[in-house]
Amino acid sequence: MAKFAKKKDGDLPAVSTASLPDIVFMLLFFFMTVTTMKDSSIMVENTLPNASETKKLEKKDRIIYIFAGKPTKEYQSVYGTETRIQLNDKFANVNEVGSYILAERAKKPQELQNVLTTALKVDKEANMGLISDIKQELRKVNALKVNYTTFEGDAFNNIQ
Amino acid sequence: MPRRKGAPEVNAGSMADIAFLLLIFFLVTTTIETDAGLDRMLPPIEPPTEDPPVIKQKNIFTVNINKNGQLLVEEKIMNIKDLRAAATEFLDNGGAPQGPEYCSYCKGKRDPNSSDNPNKAIISLKNDRETKYATYITVQNELVGAYNDLRNREAQRLFNRDFVDMEAEYLNPETPSAVREELKDKVKKIQDLFPQKLSEAETSTN
């Protein structure tokens, strides 16, 4: 008499894991493409103001960044709460801006040295006095093209 | 009598295809985030011997921001929301009578006491050292907005598209160079109609 092995109810077959590597690779590639390398950690508060008439900053290799704002919590005990300038990954005084720009400019290839833009990433709580000092320094080293980096949004959100 | 089978095994052979499909979808749709902001040119440091050029008072539109973020525009207190309209009116005035300085494309009031021609019109911005950066950016944004509105208007009239679009396409590195060459002249032409003359005085200390 033929014997039928009756499968027990609820005995599900194992899910094939053959495609797991594919999924993992997919995630890997996804994150590889969307992440941008952060070359310096920001040590100042950096909530940018909003603006609507913005232009995109194309070509990352032509940009020199200057950050300004209050030092973040972990640095406040050492550097206080006054607005500070951050160049690369250290705090700096206004009079160091010029030499920083010159040093950064010298690092770029010759053909780009005349088309560099200075991106000012300044916290919206900062005072204009510091910005004016930075601008004055930039004028001294002839780095005249600046970009006030902002978030896209309604500019009237800035004043409340 | 119905025979109970276990659940059939799902064919996982196409899983890889689905994964690749998703991967390619994300690859195509994600753009690496780029920063955006307001582009400005700083004035070069002038040699001290040079005499500053004489500019008629009526061609200057003064904007003063105090430390509380209040605006003084042409000696009158103004709400920041009205700044764009006021700047547009000043730039578009075209007050010069018939002659070399006559502005044929201006649609303003042609008030003889306001700017002669957009080429002559200068906006002068002055701020206090204690002005908030956010306020300053708002004012800058409104002034750039006034220029962009007028440029858009002229670009619509001449080329049937917005100036802001044209400029963005021109500056985009992915635009083919043939298209870019063509846009270059158009962008230049519009920029010449309403040149951005935004002067910033050194900040006052009190």
Automatic annotation (TrEMBL), chain A:
TM segment ranges: 12-32
Lineage top rank: taxon: Bacteria
UniProt-listed Pfam families: ExbD
Membrane-topology descriptor: Single-pass membrane protein; Single-pass type II membrane protein
Localization per Swiss-Prot or TrEMBL: Cell membrane
GO biological process: protein transport
Keyword terms: Cell membrane, Membrane, Protein transport, Transmembrane, Transmembrane helix, Transport
GO molecular function, one term: transmembrane transporter activity
Cellular component GO terms held in the UniProt record: plasma membrane
Protein name: Biopolymer transport protein ExbD/TolR
Source organism: Croceitalea dokdonensis DOKDO 023
TrEMBL record, chain B:
GO molecular function: transmembrane transporter activity
Annotated keywords: Cell membrane, Membrane, Protein transport, Transmembrane, Transmembrane helix, Transport
Gene Ontology terms: cellular component: plasma membrane
Record keyword Aminoacyl-tRNA synthetase present: no
InterPro entries in UniProt: ExbD (IPR003400)
Main location per the UniProt record: membrane
GO biological process assignments: protein transport
Places the protein is found: Cell membrane
One Pfam family, short name: ExbD
Membrane topology according to the record: Single-pass membrane protein; Single-pass type II membrane protein
Coiled coil (residue ranges): none
Domain of life of the source: Bacteria
Keyword Membrane: yes
Family to which the UniProt record says this protein belongs: Belongs to the ExbD/TolR family.
Name listed for the protein in its UniProt record: Biopolymer transport protein ExbD/TolR
Protein species of origin: Croceitalea dokdonensis DOKDO 023
